[in-house]
Amino acid sequence: MADSDDAVEGKLPLLRNPVVRTIRSREGTFDITQANAEPNLDGFGYRDEVYLPGEEIPEFERHIEATSIEVFYDLFFAANLCVFAEVQDVTNAQQVATFVCYFCLLWFTWLALGLFDVRFVTDSVFERVVRAVHFGAMVGFAVVAPNFNLAEQDPRTFRTMSLILTTSRAALGFQYGTILWHVRKFKSSRIGLAIMCSLNFIAAFIYLGAAFAFKEKGTEALWVLWFVVTVVEVAVSVWGSYQWEVLSFYGTHLTNRVSLLTFILMGEGIVTVCSAVSKIVLNANQWTTPTIGNVAAGVANIYLIYMIYMDWRRAKRFPRAKQLIWSFLHLPFHLALKLFILASSQFVIFWKIFETAYWVDNEFTVAMGAALDPTSDFNITTEWFVGTIEEVVNKTFAIYVPKYFGTYAAVQNATAELRKMPDAIWNVPDFSLATPEEQELLGVLQSTLETLLLSVQNSLFSTFNINGYGGVSDDVELFETAEEQALELNSQKFRTVVIAAYVGAGFTLILVNILFIISRSRKWTTFNYVRKGINFLIGIGLCLVSLITLDDLKAAEYTITPWPLPTIVFTLFLVLVINHLPHPPPIFFSGRAKPQEGEGAAKTGSGSPSFVSPVGDGTHETKSGYQNVSVRDQEA
């Protein structure tokens, strides 16, 4: 890429031919047509494609891992997710559905270019210009993120999204067109590339048509067309990789590319958690032990998932089917991982809200107890009591400034109501013997403090963009005040976060387990089956924990504590330990798996170097100075 010899010397070509040589299928013959950088060794022992007799097939430059320009493009992907997490409140079912839609569109747009890059990436003036167009498309995703909502469906936002998809696919169509031009002399390769070129231009035209179709009303389900076209794009790409050698993913760095995106997502997750920390800890006094524990748990969860993923990522090269299945399974894995990370960061914020609300409630209770204590020698007055309450509220608002002016008005109304209390109410020796007037005053006092506490709690939620006020309606049959309704809406948001965190963590573990099963190439033993079964059960168990939200009282006893995130940490750590346990003695399970005969590199009967050329369907012909041996690769 950018570090090639031509680029270093300032001789960047207008168009660069990615073909490094021609493979002629006559046995043992390789016609090198173009020298380019370093030789590609995939054709000398790693490719297992079937070549027709006498057919010339272009061999493209291959990379062991992602190039610098691919990594740079991946950073745009992560940046978009950061923006979405910052501007959208993913704390209810509709917003979760919106995030899933946004994430899938972003992921498939990344995949469309990624599938091209792993096969044909080059560095030229044309490629850099087109890459700038793709970067612009990624910036477009960030532009629409604040207003992208499936429930409201702002027509301008959805038209913009369609135009972004149009631009991305049109640019990709031109890229496939240049590859078609480079291989125009290879008859067997032209059809496949022509189909991919046409596919992207057709998809671009469909997206363009959808952009003009979005209207104020009557197009609520039109966004489904995006996913229909996207699925067709992926299906044709996979089908084409099996039909034409020029489109094959075998021997490419596709698995490395999706793994790299996984690591970038985890790094972006650390940024998301740290962003939540910067919101809640505004001075040194805000660092309490539970807060430190939740922040540490949010980061530890991501690190544990990283270790589990790395430990279970065994093979770097796969047969065709396994390679594609393993790669495409990263879509649900990445989605579950991102939902879990978002929920973890929200957990950190929710806990700080609960902790602050607990402190305010406790201060109110202490002031109330002192004011109504008949044994106290202190001369309690209404002014002292109101001043104490205002001091608590002002301390809270000094750190977490209310988002709405109405909050200040609500607090002033509440304190004005408290000032109406006569000083005689504080001198009642026994409220069980109080007069009806005194009982009524006590009821007003308690209800006013409850309303004031509700106002403070809802203000804390809105300060952190968890805004229940936005859903308050005029229905007062169930809720006596708007504050009560807003608090209930905020509670529903928290239940959504609980569900997203545990279901996201559970599915992340389940999908990583499936990825390991696909990547494992050695023989399975009974102990391996038991261990993987335990992993599945733990993942399912994490998902089932979310059912606690069906019972509000039981849920409150557990979720409104500092323990939900640390519980996931302990669970993931248990999984890590289980999967590093040594194989038990044969008295419990069968012995260790032994490497199968033929596993690994083919061996000749001597120490002389060997030359391996593909002769079709997984059979490698091994030639040395002493013997010719034909060995079939075995999949353990």
TrEMBL record:
Record protein name field: Low temperature requirement A
Region (Disordered): 594-636
Sequence ranges of Polar residues compositional bias: 624-636
Record flagged with keyword Membrane: yes
Superkingdom assignment: Eukaryota
PANTHER family for this protein: CHROMOSOME 16, WHOLE GENOME SHOTGUN SEQUENCE, LOW TEMPERATURE REQUIREMENT A
Species the sequence originates in: Rhypophila decipiens
InterPro entries in alphabetical order: Low_temperature_requirement_A (IPR010640)
Entry's transmembrane regions: 96-116, 128-148, 193-214, 220-239, 260-280, 292-312, 324-351, 497-518, 530-550, 562-582
Low complexity bias spans: 605-617
Keywords on record: Membrane, Transmembrane, Transmembrane helix
